[in-house]
Structure formats: C-alpha cells, structure tokens
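Fig. S4 source data, part A: sequence.
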Amino acid sequence: MNINIDTKQIINTLKDNKVVVMPSDTIYGIFGRALDKDVENKIYNIKGRDSSKPFILLINDISDLKLFNITIEKEIEEKLNKIWPNKVTVLLNCLDNNFEYLHKGTKTIAFRIPNDKALLEILKETGPLISTSANLTGQPYAKTIEEAKNYFNDDIDLYVDGGYIEGEPSTLIELTKDTVKVLRQGSVDLSNI
C-alpha cells in the first residue's frame, strides 16, 4: 500500500468506528471495523449494497478466526498457511449466530490475510476489518481517490490517496480437506494448491 497519510490517523479513524477508503492489496476499498454492527450497516448504506450479501473480512493472522468462534481442522489450517498472506479470500464456516449480521444467515464468512505490510500493521491495531470495493453497487471500481470521492462525497470519514490503482479483486475460494473450489477467479491462480 503506497499511502501518503499517517498510518496512525488511519488506525485512529477506524478505531473510532468510522469508515475509510484506502488502497487494499488489490484495489481501492471501503474499510470499517467488522466487530461493530453499526459500521457494517453504514457501509451497506454507503455502497447501496443488497444487505443480504455478506462482505469480505480482512484479518491479520489465522488466530483472528477465534474472534468469530471459528475452529478449523489441521488440514485446512495447513492449506491456509500455504495460501496466506495473499490476494486470496477463503470462505469459512461461521456457525455462531452472534455473527449473523456478518454472514447473513449463510453460516459462512469470507476472510483474507492481505499480502501488504502496511495493511497488516493497521489490522494488528484495529482488529478485523470489513473490506469491499470502493464503488457504488453496479458501478466500476474506483481507480483513483477522486473517483471514490465522486461516488461517496462526505459519507466517508477518511480518504487515503494511493495514486492510480488498476487491480483485480481477490480470488475467492472454498476449502475442504481434499479440494480447493474457486468461486471467483481473481488476481491469483490456485490451480497448484
């Protein structure tokens, strides 16, 4: 993440349960704390997104899955350690009804550990973050902070300019002990895992 703003300002803004647009390890994203229902609801409203479609969550470490009462089998953990950190999002079972506001009744949440040192430092301080592309639903991804501002105006608490970014979304997969199922092909090819 190439940013020209103090990382502490980003961390403090997110810790205050506010919403930030900044570069991710893939494209510009909208970020907010995942463990705050009001923040999650605000991001749905900002994007105009169907509230039945869950968001991706960024975590700093596999141990963060415990925050969501997710336990994974050893074989799955070994695969995750080979995959992460990377531009790969993994759909995992989350059976805890306390997180229904995140999984929307699907009993699954999509997680990613980003391959970006600055973003990992932010996650270490803020805890898990909702991550979604910086665009209004149905519109192209913002490639510049100006495009993001045109979409969201004052609805975003902090904009972080990382220059022009034309990336691809993460690859979305589902894992079992024996298989890797690609649900959305993105920037990473996982055919060799």
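Fig. S4 source data, part B ends here. Residues 37-47 form the longest helix (11 residues).
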